[in-house]
Amino acid sequence: MHCIGMARLILFNKPYGVLSQFTDRERGRPTLADYIDVPEIRVAGRRDFDSEGLLLLTDDGQLQARIADPRHKMAKVYRAQVEGVPDQEALARLRGGLVLNDGPTRPAGARLIDEPRGLWPRDPPIRFRARIPTQWLELTLKEGRNRQVRRMTAAVGHPTLRLIRHAIGEWTLDGLEPGQWRELSAAAGGPDRPRRRFPAPRKL
After folding, report:
1. Could you give all domains of the chain from N- to C-terminal order, each with its CATH number?
2. Exposure winner among 1, 42, 82, 186, fewest CB in 10 A?
3. 52-58 and 109-113 as β-strands: parallel, antiparallel, unpaired?
């Protein structure tokens, strides 16, 4: 594991429907502040409102840049539940690179996987169509465009229904339930115990 010196690094399993920021003054949606109360911590990379999974936060600007800047080509592993079952041609297109509206993607890892072990229920659940099966994919990217996984799977005819980021570089979701976070020990680079701050009920 890379040495992070005295930097604070937090691994957070972002639930569906939570913004990857600490305030939402306009609409009052759930934010990171509902789960994490650590001063001077900033998001390193983002997760979409409708996506789940690993989010890294740090108080170190250099570490934040190394994680978030695509020039560093830090691998990010995603698990996507898609409509239909991609065939070998679709997987080959994902691996070889696709031309999206903002240009060609870099080559990526893409493989079919079983439903992830220990998968938690999503609230709200995904939409199911009785006549259309679903399949889980594992995608490994070294770039981070806006909604890239969703656009890639849609481009090969398999829209994403559920998206979970499992890993960023050497850091993974392992041992974290939705809404839980873990701070790595600055001295040893090892993990502290998972923590959870339960959000207060919101007024409707």
Report:
1. 1-72+171-196 (3.30.70.580), 75-168 (3.30.70.1560)
2. 1
3. unpaired
